[in-house]
Task: inverse folding
């Protein structure tokens, strides 16, 4: 389950980081005079992705538990 969640998260991370680089970076640089705001935005994306990955992993784990319980119930019946 961890591998499936990691694969989804890796793909999502690439898409988000590239989107930030191509779209938000120019807007941030032209409108905000504080240095390293773009870098902080990427750090924030990374932190959010870590929490999302944990939730996704829990979701897949619960889904697998339900499948096992269903199989055990059908085997006992």
Result:
């Amino acid at each position: 389950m961890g591998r499936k969640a990691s694969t989804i998260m890796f793909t999502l991370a690439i898409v988000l980081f590239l989107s930030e680089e191509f779209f938000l970076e120019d807007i941030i640089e032209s409108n905000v005079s504080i240095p390293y705001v773009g870098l902080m935005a990427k750090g924030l994306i990374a932190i959010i992705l870590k929490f999302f990955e944990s939730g996704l992993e829990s979701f897949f784990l619960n889904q697998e538990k339900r499948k096992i319980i269903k199989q055990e119930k059908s085997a006992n019946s």
